[in-house]
């Protein structure tokens, strides 16, 4: 299975056809997409003005990848720390994780899942992801408002009416 960094290298490879490079960026989203595949793609395409005819501006793909990678770095660090913690707990005979976080079971995916691909936070991805990670570190689960924007009606709606994020993850709205 091709990894995120391998796809990322191909997105930046100017010897490749721009259409192929765009496909590789979409492949990256199968590995890491904080809002889910469609909403994350929509965010990147709007923010970095990825044109329909990609040959007109292939460098937009690299700008989008830069943002995606910056958001992925702290999640990776968190996953590595969590794996180490789990190994320690297992060695001590505790089979059930003491601090289960959604992204551990989702494989770093759908961290701030947005069911409507056109409704997602407008801020930079690293900022939003950082806020979600921080909120989950502070409290055990997504209660007391939207993890991203703080909207308090979140528990009522499950999907935040303000920023579009389902703070409880994809599973909470299915
Ligand atoms: Zn919100």
UniProtKB/TrEMBL annotation:
It comes from Actinoplanes regularis. This is Uncharacterized protein. It comes from the Bacteria.
């Amino acid at each position: 299975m091709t990894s995120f960094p391998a796809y990322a290298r191909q997105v930046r490879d100017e010897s490749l056809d721009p259409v192929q490079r765009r496909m590789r960026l979409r492949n990256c989203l199968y590995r890491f997409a904080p809002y889910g595949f469609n909403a994350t793609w929509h965010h990147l395409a709007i923010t970095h003005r990825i044109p329909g005819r990609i040959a007109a501006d292939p460098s937009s793909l690299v700008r989008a990848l830069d943002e995606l990678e910056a958001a992925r770095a702290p999640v990776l660090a968190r996953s590595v720390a969590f794996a180490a913690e789990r190994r320690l707990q297992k060695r001590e005979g505790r089979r059930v994780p003491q601090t289960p976080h959604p992204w551990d079971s989702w494989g770093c995916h759908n961290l701030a899942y947005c069911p409507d691909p056109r409704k997602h936070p407008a801020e930079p991805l690293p900022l939003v992801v950082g806020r979600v990670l921080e909120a989950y570190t502070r409290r055990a689960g997504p209660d007391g408002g939207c993890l991203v924007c703080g909207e308090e009606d979140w528990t009522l709606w499950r999907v935040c009416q303000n920023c579009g994020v389902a703070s409880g993850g994809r599973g909470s709205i299915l």
